[in-house]
Amino acid sequence: MFKKKLLAISGSLILSATLTGVAQTTTTTTATKTAVVQNSDGSYTVIEYPVGKEVMVDLTPGMSMTNARGRARVMRMGNETTVNLDLSGLPADASNYYVYAVDPAGRVTLLGPAGINNGASQVSFRTPMDKFMLVLSPNENLSTIGSDTPVVFRSAVPQGYAVVGNTTTTPTVGMEKQAAGSAAVSSTYEVPLLGVSALERGETEIRINFSGELQGLKGKAYLDTSKEGVSKIKMRFDDMKLAPKDRRYVLWAVSPTKEYTKIGQIINTGKRQEAEIRGETALKDFGLFVTVEEKDVLQPTSTIYSPFTIVR
To answer: Is residue 2 included in any domain, yes or no?
Structure first.
């Protein structure tokens, strides 16, 4: 469940494919039900994904990408949603796109990079979100989706689904940005950067210094920089029975500008001794830390964290 951000690509093929922003939706009420309709231009396509049912979502390409094809297979199981993307017919010079999930309030969450090879890409992501639309862009640092945002694909509404009501708010950036229902970040996370650009290609071991309620928890982490522009992260927890139960242990990457990317999480039920988080990120440099959360969040809220350092 991990992530990374990629290179911006040739603008002439994609700048015409923009969203008009998360605009107002229309709600029609009868005595028996409420139906929410998407914008006529298709720019607002947030739906709620059902539990235990795979949903096929067509991805609408930009106007200048007439040969491009995209589809997502989305499966929600419990507190996690898996998104499998299949892209083809992309421009020959395309190398990377960034995949974002946009919630009903217009908040933007980076799912990760989609590397492109010979005009095609197949990639999977995981997220705790259950209501979102998908947006693919060459831009790696989106905090909002607007009329000036370069967009190469956006999700369409599958047949039989209604668009979730629009609850547009003005999103904030950085420490103040938070998921709906989560508490504000209660402290500044002073996490050292790993100096990723200076690492040799291949796998590097990372030292984990657990503290606070995580004292006594054991773990190992590895950073793989063998793929150009992507850092793969693998973290394994041991002695989980010594850690607080019924909590979510979330691995975060923090950028030099204090923006947080959720790499992945595990839930400690108290019945297993070991657990593992896998993910990747496109950040060129970052720090890593762990928080213990009471519920699913898209930004860190816990004051308990564990900085990581490179083993030299």
So the answer is: no
